[in-house]
Structures are given as structure tokens and as C-alpha cells.
């Protein structure tokens, strides 16, 4: 059955292959000789733990953490939006801290523990943040959602650590307030072009209570 | 992205050996460097990863200041209890920069060394003297709303985007450096950055191969500190204008003031003349408005950014008033 299972990703993959075949003619005028691969950097070994599973890979140093997750480990839950750290769709947790996976070289993640959306929960046992996003309809198209959820989980940890934000009135307080204004400021690195922001904030507020409970 | 080789330096000596290789660059957080590599603006042949060097500590100094390790993250520095209590303008500046994810990754030294830049610098289809010296400046006659009003040249009108560096300039910080031959020196913030002149490709006075090991903060000056940032959206945007200000009051008179501006020049811009005028003056709105005007003395707009001159003057006045009100409050 699985042999005949048609997926959107499979169709897109076939399309990319066809495009690649047409490539040389299309770029005949470019400075790089048509069809000649760019000079490759020497590949390097890299060992990382992703969602609790250890992986030993050999990668071109140019591969980003984002591309490693998606293209080398098949973990396509993490999304590529802008690929320049501006949209937050690629947010993952690195040693428990939220980062833009597009702006990390995979080889620089040697020994790190990565958690992606696939590692937070699954259909039968959603992470409280995932459940809250479902309950509050914290998305529309869903493309930014894995990044929003990973970012929100990392963000709540930062609040628990007592890290202030730009809107924190009292910089020297040790306990950080958990208010809508704080969440909006702290989540500003995650763009939602469907503008589901009110529901995202509601979901995060609820999930923070679930965590505390 | 161009191919490169990569090494993870085990210690500072190894890093300083690695940087001697042709086309080598240090990388720590990489939030700006990797971004620029993706568009072939930065094309290092070799990367020396210094992110795991033991340079992340934030420590008290014997003179009552703070030594901030080069690889301390922007998040850790902003959240440090001593910074929050004694250098609040620095904490505020950091928290007003970038996003939570980027602050977690970006380092202190990397923040200082992020490129002074504009969108023409990123666009390899357009002339840019900073990217390709001698090719021309696309911003002079282009869309220059975000560009410099102070200290610019016909070669380049880009602005340094850091918030952190603006506060460090106001706090008279110094940058501690180590050369490949092991020699150490420190550069005051006033001497660290360059104006574009005819060589906009040079942004700092670092010598080839020098490694930033720390930023040194002198003991906090007396007075109330504020950081005020004006931008196109409420969060996660570069400053159109930002101001780090400190006011030390003696009753109703200004004993001492510090003013540094961001978003207005090729480097953090210290408003020395405005600071001088404030000493001994009555802390009134008129005084602060005059200081704002003094801060933009010699400013020049390039068309779309003309509004920044009045905006900068008013933001300085507002920041000074805010610092005074906090003191009274």
C-alpha cells in the first residue's frame, strides 16, 4: 500500500527532479559552466542528538541545521520560511534554547541536543502547547506553526528563568510577569502572515497555565 | 553559498592560528555572517568556530566594573543581574534588539562586529562601495529612508544597526583584543569603529587576525540611564533612531550627561557637544530640546531620510526628559 501512497511531498520531489534536468540549458549564460557543480568543501563528520535519537552524519560544512533536519533526517516539520532568520518558521530548541535553525551550521551543532516539533509530542500525546494551539485555533495555513510552538516552549522557559523582555517594566524584578503584552513582545521573532496572532497568544497563555499546573 | 572549510577551535591559541589561513574568518553565533554568506556578500574560505572557547563569562572587575566575555550571548548579557541593576541602558538596548531566538545565539563580540549595512549591501546586483570598493553607492540616489544623517560620506551612507553598541558607547566601554602573536590591547568604543570616509569597507580599527576576548565596562557612572528606540514596528525591527542617555542631576541642574545615538551613522554616534552643553544647565524641556538640536549639529539628509534629523533631535530630548523623570519619580 505504501508503495502507491501519493504524497504532496512526493509530487513536489518529482517536480524538482524534472527542473534539475532542465537546469543546464536555463543557466547556460551564468558564469559557472553549465552543469559544473560548485567546488565542494570537504565533508565533515557531525554527531547530534535529535529528539532523543543520536545521529552520526557526514556533511558539507555549508549545510545548515535546518537543511540537515529536513533534507538529511527527513524531519520536515521544521519549516523553511525566509532562510534568513527573519520569520522564525525554522525555530527549534538547541540544548533547550530556542534558535533559528536556518542560521546555524550543522557542523557547529556537534554534540548538541536538538528538539524539533516532532520531538515535542505526537498525535496520540500532544505537548500542552500543541494542544493549546489546536484548542485556540492558533493558526490558519499552519506553515509558521511548528516554529511558533517550538518558540513558545523556549520562550516560557526564558520567563521561568526570570529573563526580562523589552516591555518588562521592572528590570530588576526576579519573577517575570506572564501577560499578553509580554508574550507578544517575546514572540516577535515568529511571523504569522495569516495573522493568527490573537489566537496564538491565547494558546500560549493557556499552555503556560497547563505547564504551571 | 561558497564552499569553505571549517574548524572548531579548542582554545584561543588554536583560534589565532586558524585565522592565519587565507580567507579565514571567526564565527561564533553567526547570525550576521552566515546570513551574508548565503547571499555571497561574505565569502570566507575558512571558518574558525570560536563559539566554544571559554570566553562567555561575565565577571566583576576590581575597579567595580564588569568584564563581559566575547561569547556571552546577548540574552545572557541582557538578563545578567548586575547589568540589569547597574547598567540598565545596556540591558534595555539588548532587549530592544533582534528577536528572542537571535539574542539567544548572537554573541557580544559578534554584535559589535555585525556589518554596518543597508539593503544595497545585500543586493549583489547593485553597486556598493562597502561590498565592492570603487563600484559606487546605490543608496545616495536610491531609496535611503533608513540611512545615515551624521558622519556619512559620498562613498557610503549605511548605518550600524546594533543597539547594544550604542549603550556601550554611552557607557565608555572598551574592547579587549588579542593578536595572533599573543599581544593584547584594548580599544575604547570611541576608537573602535570608523566612519566610512573613502574606505567604507573598513568598519573597525581591528588589525588583521585580532580576536575580541571581552568588552570592559567601567564602573557605572552616577545618574539615571534610559534607552529609547524608535522604529517602524513595535518589536523586532532596526532603529530608525535610538538613544542611550544618562542624566545625573544635582537638584534641578544637570551635573553630567551621556548621549549616544543609533541608526544615524556608520557607527554608534556619541553626541559630545550636546553632553558638554548640558553640564550645569537647568533640567528643563528647553534645555533638553537644545541638547537634541546640538546632537544633530551638522546632520545631513539624503531625501527619504530627511525626517530622521528632527526625529533624532526629539528622541534625544525625550530620552533626557525620561531619565530626569525616572530620577524624580
3D architecture notes:
The complex is a heterodimer of chains A (213) and B (329). Chain A has 7 helices and 5 strands, in the order H-E-E-H-E-E-E-H-H-H-H-H. Chain A is of the alpha+beta class and 213 residues long. Chain A has a single domain (44-207), classed as DNA polymerase, domain 1 (Orthogonal Bundle). Chain A has a 5-stranded mixed beta sheet with strand order 2-1-5-3-4, with helices on both faces. The longest helix of chain A has 19 residues, at 8-26. With 329 residues, chain B is an alpha+beta fold. In chain B, the strands form 3 sheets. A 5-stranded antiparallel beta sheet of chain B has the order 4-5-8-6-7. The longest helix of chain B has 22 residues, at 307-328. Chain A binds chain B through residues 38-42, 44, 60-62, 64, 83-85, 88, 91, 97-100, 103-105, 107-108, 110, 151, 154-155, 158, 161-166, 168, 171-172, 184-190, and chain B through 1-6, 8, 27, 29-31, 34-35, 38, 47, 49, 51, 75, 78-79, 81, 84-85, 88, 91-92, 95-96, 98-102, 104-105, 234-236.
Name the overall outline of chain B. Answer: globular
Low-confidence stretches of chain B: none
Number of strands of chain B: 12
Q: Count of DSSP helices of chain A?
A: 7
Shape of chain A: globular
In DSSP terms, counting alpha (H) and pi (I) runs of 4 or more, how many helices of chain B?
A: 13
Query: Care to count the β-strands of chain A?
Result: 5
Distance between termini of chain A? 44 Å
CATH architecture of chain A: Orthogonal Bundle
Q: Terminal Cα separation of chain B, in Å?
A: 53 Å
Low-confidence stretches of chain A are: 15-38
* Domain count of chain A: 1
Q: What can be said about the biggest beta sheet of chain B?
A: 5 strands, antiparallel
Rg value of chain A: 20 Å
Amino acid at each position: 500500500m505504501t508503495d502507491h501512497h501519493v504524497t504532496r511531498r512526493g509530487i513536489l520531489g518529482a517536480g524538482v527532479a524534472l527542473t534539475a534536468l532542465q537546469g543546464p540549458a536555463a543557466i547556460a549564460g551564468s558564469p559557472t559552466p553549465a552543469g559544473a557543480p560548485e567546488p565542494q568543501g570537504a565533508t565533515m563528520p557531525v554527531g547530534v542528538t535529535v529528539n532523543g535519537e543520536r545521529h552520526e552524519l557526514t556533511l558539507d560544512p555549508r549545510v545548515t541545521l535546518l537543511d540537515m533536519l529536513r533534507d538529511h533526517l527527513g524531519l520536515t516539520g521544521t519549516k523553511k520560511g525566509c532562510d534568513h532568520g527573519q520569520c522564525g518558521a525554522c525555530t527549534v530548541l538547541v540544548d533547550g534554547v530556542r534558535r533559528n535553525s536556518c542560521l546555524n551550521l550543522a557542523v557547529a551543532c556537534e554534540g548538541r541536543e536538538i528538539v524539533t516539533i516532532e520531538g515535542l509530542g505526537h498525535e496520540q500525546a500532544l505537548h500542552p502547547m500543541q494542544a493549546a494551539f489546536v484548542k485556540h485555533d492558533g493558526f490558519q495555513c499552519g506553515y509558521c506553526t511548528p516554529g511558533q510552538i517550538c518558540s513558545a516552549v523556549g520562550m516560557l522557559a526564558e520567563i521561568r528563568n526570570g529573563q526580562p523582555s523589552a516591555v518588562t517594566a521592572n528590570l530588576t524584578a526576579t519573577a517575570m510577569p506572564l501577560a499578553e503584552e509580554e508574550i507578544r513582545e517575546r514572540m516577535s521573532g515568529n511571523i504569522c502572515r495569516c495573522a493568527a496572532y490573537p489566537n496564538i497568544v491565547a494558546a500560549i497563555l493557556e499552555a503556560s497555565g497547563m505547564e504551571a499546573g | 553559498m561558497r564552499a569553505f572549510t571549517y574548524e572548531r577551535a579548542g582554545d584561543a591559541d588554536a583560534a589565532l592560528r586558524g585565522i592565519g589561513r587565507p580567507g579565514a574568518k571567526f564565527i561564533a553565533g553567526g547570525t550576521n555572517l552566515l546570513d551574508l554568506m548565503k547571499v555571497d556578500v561574505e565569502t570566507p574560505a575558512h571558518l574558525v568556530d570560536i563559539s566554544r572557547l571559554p570566553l562567555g563569562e561575565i565577571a566583576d572587575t576590581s575597579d567595580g566594573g564588569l568584564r563581559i566575555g566575547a561569547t556571552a550571548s546577548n540574552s545572557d548579557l541582557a538578563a545578567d543581574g548586575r547589568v540589569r541593576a547597574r547598567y540598565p541602558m545596556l540591558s534595555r538596548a539588548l532587549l530592544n534588539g533582534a528577536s528572542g531566538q537571535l539574542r539567544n545565539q548572537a554573541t557580544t563580540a559578534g554584535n559589535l562586529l555585525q556589518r554596518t549595512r543597508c539593503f544595497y549591501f545585500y543586493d549583489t546586483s547593485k553597486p556598493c562601495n562597502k561590498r565592492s570598493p570603487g563600484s559606487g553607492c546605490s543608496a545616495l540616489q536610491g531609496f535611503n529612508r533608513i540611512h545615515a544623517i551624521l558622519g556619512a560620506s559620498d562613498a557610503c551612507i549605511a548605518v550600524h544597526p546594533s543597539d547594544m553598541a550604542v549603550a556601550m558607547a554611552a557607557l565608555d566601554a572598551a574592547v579587549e583584543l588579542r593578536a595572533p602573536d599573543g599581544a593584547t590591547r584594548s580599544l575604547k568604543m570611541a576608537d573602535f569603529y570608523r566612519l566610512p570616509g573613502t574606505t567604507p569597507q573598513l568598519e573597525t580599527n581591528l588589525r588583521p587576525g585580532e580576536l575580541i576576548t571581552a568588552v570592559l565596562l567601567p564602573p557605572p557612572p552616577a545618574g539615571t540611564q534610559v534607552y529609547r528606540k524608535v522604529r517602524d514596528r513595535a518589536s523586532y525591527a532596526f532603529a530608525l533612531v535610538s538613544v542611550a542617555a544618562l542624566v545625573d542631576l544635582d537638584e534641578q541642574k544637570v551635573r553630567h550627561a551621556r548621549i549616544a545615538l543609533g541608526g544615524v551613522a556608520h557607527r554608534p554616534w556619541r553626541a559630545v557637544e550636546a553632553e558638554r552643553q548640558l553640564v550645569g544647565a537647568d533640567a528643563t524641556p528647553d534645555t533638553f530640546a537644545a541638547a537634541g538640536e546640538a546632537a544633530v549639529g551638522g546632520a545631513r539628509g539624503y531625501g527619504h531620510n530627511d525626517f530622521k534629523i528632527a526625529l533624532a533631535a526629539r528622541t534625544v530630548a525625550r530620552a533626557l526628559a525620561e531619565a530626569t523623570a525616572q530620577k524624580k519619580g
